[in-house]
Give the backbone structure.
Amino acid sequence: MISYGKKEMEALALIEPINANNIAIDTEKYVRKAHELRSEFLADTLQKMYRGTVGKYRQHRKLEAAKNALYAMSDRELNDIGIIRSEIDQAVEGKREMEATKKAGFWQNLMNKFVEAQKARAAYVHLMAMDSRQLADIGLTRGEIEVAVNGNKKDRANDNLAQPINTNDHRKAV
C-alpha cells in the first residue's frame, strides 16, 4: 500500500485538476417526465368523470325500468309483494319515508328535547305520587324512580338479572 504525503497530494492535484462542477442535470428528461405525469393525471380524471356519468345514467335507466315494471302490475299483484301504487317510487329508490328522513333543524331539535324533558318530568311526578305498594307492583323502589325515568336500566338496583351464586343446579337434598 502506498502512502502519500502532503507534497505528493499537491503534485497529483496539479496533474489532474478536479472539476467541482461536473454534475449535469438533464432538464429535458424531467420536463418529459412531468408532461407524462400530467397527461396520466388528466386521463385518469377524465376517465373517472366519464365512468361516473355513464354509471349514473345506467343506474337511472335501471331504476326507471324497475318503476315501469311495477307500474305495469295490477293493484292485486302490488299488494302481493307488499306495496301500494303510491309507494312504488320510494320502494325502487330505497327511500323509506320522504318526510321522516329529512333532518330536523335547530329549532325542531330544541323543541323535541323540551318535549322529552317535560315527559320525563311528568313521569317522575306520577311515579313519586305512587305509594310503595304500587311501586312494588311495577318492580320499582322509591330510590329507583329517577333511574327508571332516565332510562338507564343497568343502573337500577332491583334489576332481577343477577343469578344466585350457588344454584345447586336445582337439585334437592336426598
Observations:
- The CA atoms of residues 26 and 95 lie 59 Å apart.
- DSSP finds seven helices and no strands in the chain.
- The mean pLDDT is 79.
